[in-house]
Design goal:
heterodimer; A: alpha/beta; Rossmann fold; 2 domains; seven-stranded mixed β-sheet; five-stranded parallel β-sheet; 15 strands; globular; B: mainly alpha; two-stranded antiparallel ribbon; two-stranded antiparallel sheet; 14 helices
Chain lengths: ~375, ~300
Amino acid sequence: MRSRSRLAGVAATLLVVSGILAPAFAEDAPGGTVTGETVTFGQYADQSGPNAAIGAARYGLDAYLQAVNAQGGVRGKKLRLISYDDGYKPAQTAALVKKLVFQDGVFAIVGGVGSPTTAAVAPALNDLGVPLVGMATGSPIFYEPTRKYVFPAWPLYTTDGKAMASFLKTHFEGKKVGVIYQDDSFGKPILAAVESVLGHVEEIPYSPGQVDFSSAVVKLKAAGVDALVLATIAAPAAQILNELPKFNYAPVRVLTGSACGYSEIFKTIPSLEGAYCAAFLPTPEGKDPQWEAFTNAMARYEPGHPAEIYSAWGWLAGQVAVEGLRRTRGPITRQAYVAALESIKGFHTIGGDLSYSSQSHRGIGSQFIWQAKNGRWLTVPNSKVEP
Amino acid sequence: MLLFARSERAALLTLALVVAFPIACGFRTYPLFIATQFAVFAMVALSLDVLMGRSGQISLGHAGFFALGAYAAAILSVRYDVDLLVGVIAGAALAALGSLIVGLPATRLSGHYLGIVTLGFGVAVAQIALKWTALTNGDEGVHTHAIHLAGTVLSSPLHVYAVVFVALGAVTAFVARLPRTRLGRAFGAVRDSEIAAAAMGISVARTKVLAFVISAAIAGGAGALYAALTGFVAPEDFGIGQSLLFFAMVVVGGTASTAGTLLGALVLEGVSQAAATVGGLSLTLIGAAIVGVALFRPAGLKSLWRGGEGSR
């Protein structure tokens, strides 16, 4: 028995000493200079977890890269996407991003989906000097302070909230406003922005994953709220809006772009008619030429996946990432790429005009309002809001 | 080789593999990270087996204890820049304290009812982590400081690998030796028949609570190492899905078997990493692995070498 313990002790000591004395072996991120004929981008997008619907950004990004390849690529190089399913678990995102950076040798991480997932990897990628471009989140933590290698594309969530509140203030003055918000880094900035415009409002938080909203609806009705802002993602918005008719309650309804972007929304929420949505992308049924190009590419390269807002998020990320490549002068290094991204000014994307500088990586600034009319979304005239 | 018994040969072979792995993978960051993550999850699975396999109780909320350890270590690292060893001890202590919340009702509950209590505990911890933003930073998570142990900064994946595998070795040795100790025999007696155990003079309530405390302390210590490994702790990583994954590791490997539990953890971690590259199929593949083992090896993977149905 004693010899066994001694053996185990010696083994453990050897392992610790060898580990600690070993050279640091802190690996540099490979792939910092594009040398071959292909530029590889990496992405993390939930395909199986609680937010698999918004993981459709993967298909829009892939469609954009394929469309660019069909036109000869960028600077004679073809584009390639490696997209992994992180199940919306930040630790898994961290593991998969290590795989993308150290094993797959991607040049940049593009169009990653989610706030907590991005929070898990953004500081590390910035430290490694690997660009993180066009991630699908508007959480303020990725904008301030500006990180050299992190390039958000979305308007801030606070701009969402300001767009909703300004619209209500202009068009529905005097209405009593209530906000149901997701109690996290998505919903709270929206609530704060609404209150910055309208002052105190009736507010009800909910936890991600909550499915029963009847008590929230009853409370807001009893409080006399006649304009309801939903700082929610898609599933809670559908659950809340489908509760309203049951209580014979018909307030003005305003949703976020994250809740109203999927193609089946008019079937999911039969009472959607008349509701509003704060968005930065064109309405799916509109005649926007960029949206048409996106729709055509989706039909061609990603048949079976609808051209909807969530896949358009990926398309937008692709536009930004590729524009950076187009502007890169000389050898394609990460340093040169970041400098090229920072030179982008007033670039027309599917989500509006985008500008970066060395001081600010704010991306798209403006938002506008859609309205559900006759089973489709229409843009409300003169509803554009700048941050 | 006759100098060593079969189990010792297996242990030596495993040790050789653990030492050889970093060299074989060329000290690359990603394989070392995944191997280390496996070692952390394996510790939690072993801790769960102390409850399920050794003392006949159940926990469907073990990610809650794991989370307590991870948050304790991460917050101490950020606020006080403490040594990893302090983080691990604090994580284990907090989780052990948390286990009393579940362990005390466990003296009166068993089976499905205990399962529900532990499930509730796991859900509650994740919700508290989400809501108590002043302490936990909510869903934005906590980034740890640079991790150091005994004055040495663990700056490379190899450092963390070495430390975590030594911890796994210690936990494995403890759990494997448990059945031969007085406490382990008391666990076994309570598991097999509470009435008979009480008749032999064993305090059933005390034994059950102790099993929870020991199990939670190991899971909490593993959580602290997890925070050191990932450098980031957020509530989404400690949900029901994670608790069920730990549960599945024990069931797939086979309860009351150290080697089986380690293999169960290895298989499920391997499947979930491989499945992540196949969009949309990760949960399906993990589910298929569990159903496959349940159908063809109901006693778990341990029955591969114990023959037939295996035994407790």
